[in-house]
Amino acid sequence: MTHAPRPLAVWTDFGGVLTPPVDVTFREFSTRANVPLHALKEAMRLVGEAHGTDSMGVLDTPMLDEESWSREVEAALAGTFGVDADLSRFGERWFAGRPANADWKARLEGFRAAGAFIGLLSNLPPSWERHRRFMIDDSHFDDIVCSYAVGCRKPEPEIFRIAAARAGRAPHECVLVDDVEKNVVGAAAAGWHAVLFHDAAQAAGQVAALLESAAPVPARSA
After folding, report:
1. Structure pTM?
2. Residues 126-176: pLDDT tens digits?
3. Check: CATH 3.40.50.1000 for 3-19+101-218?
4. Which residues are registered as beta bridge partners of 187?
C-alpha cells in the first residue's frame, strides 16, 4: 500500500481577511455616519448583550434582520450617548468603497491550484452576502459555510464540525485563517490548525508550512 499526501482544507475568514481590517472600516464608517467610533462600538455591544450575544451575533446567526438591528443600535446611541444617528442601509454603507484583499485572494488561488481545498468560513449576516459576492464570488471556493446559513458561528465547536464534514476532512486536516483571536482559539480547541491573520504574506507563509508538513494518509489500493 502506497501513501500519498492529502492537502489540508484551508478555510479562510471573510471580514478582516479577504477585506481590509475591520478596525479600518469601523473608523471610515463612523466618520461617514458622523457617529463617534467609541459610541458606535458600545451601542453595538449593548444591543448584542441585550440579545445574549456579542456585537455581531445578533445579525449573523441571525436573531434580527439588518433593519431591525440598525433601529436598535440607533436607539442605544440615542439613549446612552445622546447621539442622533441614521444607520439605515448599514451593510451597503459599510461595504461602500471597501476593496477585496487582492494579495490574500491570490495566495488562496495559488494554494488551490496546488491542490488544496479552499473554503470560506464566515460569521456573516444574510443581507451582506451580496456585498461579499461582489468582492469575491463563489467560484473562488470549494465550499462556503456562513453562520446565518448553518445557525451557529465561530468560535462555537459546531461550525467547525460542519465545515470539516463539508470538506470531507478530519479536524486535524483543516486549518482556519482568521483575524479574530477567539475564533483561532476556538478552531484549535476543535482540533484544527489555526493561523491568526495579520497580513497576507505572514498568513500565507504559515499556511504553506502547514501544507508542507501535513501527514500523509493511506491511499486506496488498486
Report:
1. 0.92
2. 999 999 999 999 999 999 999 999 999 999 999 999 999 999 999 999 999
3. yes
4. none
